[in-house]
Amino acid sequence: MMRSAAFVMAALAAPLSAQQHSHQSAHPTPDPAPVDHCAMGHLPPEKCPPKAESEGQAAPDHSAMDHAAKDHSQMGHEAPANSSQDPMDHSAHGAADDKSAPGAAPESALPPRALEGPRHAADLVWGEDAMAPARRQLAEENGGMQTGMVLVERLEARLGTESGSEDGYLWDAQAWYGGDLDRLVIKTEGEGEFGGSVEDAEVQALYSRAIGPFFDLQAGVRLDVEPESRTHAVIGMQGLAPYMFHVDGALFLSDRGDLTARIEGEYDQKITQRLILQPRIEAEFSAQDIAEREIGAGITKIEPGIRLRYEIVREFAPYVGLEYEAKLGQTADIAKAAGKDPDGLKVLFGLRAWF
């Protein structure tokens, strides 16, 4: 009985002794590592200590490694003395001579029969006899047709604003007929006094040839009807200058050798689609004195004015305006010597029409 109890006590004591030994032999629990706030970016750089080189990243000691003792030639690291592989020839790829590069002119010529056949391909289908009238009609409908126009630029009464000044009338018109390039142009201009005779009248017959998109060169003859009959050779230019200025200028050489010139310009300023303000200026010149016409050499006359017209329809527009007429230089002196007023302001009532 005693022997059995001793055996049981020994069996129970053995696990307790082993458990106590295991607890005593265990390593103590290490303290937690401090948090590196610098590595986490929580602190500014100036408050962080400089980083020390990690021991694990120390350079290896190659002296302990006996690399010199190794024969690399036996390992196949050296290049072979005689290589059978030639260097790559990139010129064979076509990159060195690329005929399809941008800007390269084609080397092939036109096919031998490229320019054979009729001038108009439609003639092969319909025949030249059928297509020739169609081409003529197409040319006429797109600028080749003959057209005409009559323009009465100024037909007006001119009333003097000063006492003793004369009231008169004036006309200025032109007509033309032809195509886009060649035209026959007829111009007429004149003035006179109410209750009196015509003081000045002329007619011009001109050949007009387009020398550009906006200008025509004109040449022909001018016949003065009043104050005395005289014939002039004319050469001039008419057209549309930049900024939409209408200009008309000409040189005149009379049958008596007198050389004169005239230039005029005007501009249409639209206030509305139908109400138009037109500034206008005209100047005349003479290369010599012409006593029978009371003209001196130099600038003989200048006429700046302004007209306001209303287009009732596009072809019919009455207007009112003012114009200052002044004789200049020697011509003004001749007028004063004759007891005439060399300048004056006129009130205008007129009509502009075309058809």
Please provide a written account of the structure:
- There is one protein chain.
- The chain has a domain at 156-354: Porin, CATH 2.40.160.
- The chain is 15% helix and 41% strand.
- It has four helices and 13 strands.
- The longest helix has 24 residues, at 2-25.
- Mean pLDDT is 81; it is low at 15-27, 53-59, 66-70 and 72-84.
| H-E order | HHHEEEEEEEEEEEEHE
Determine the number of helices (DSSP H or I, runs of at least 4 residues): 4
Note the overall shape.
extended
- CATH architecture identity of one domain: Beta Barrel
Number of strands: 13
Query: In what range is the share of β-strand residues?
Result: 35-45%
Give the neighbour order of strands across the main sheet: 1-2-3-4-5-6-7-8-10-11-12-13
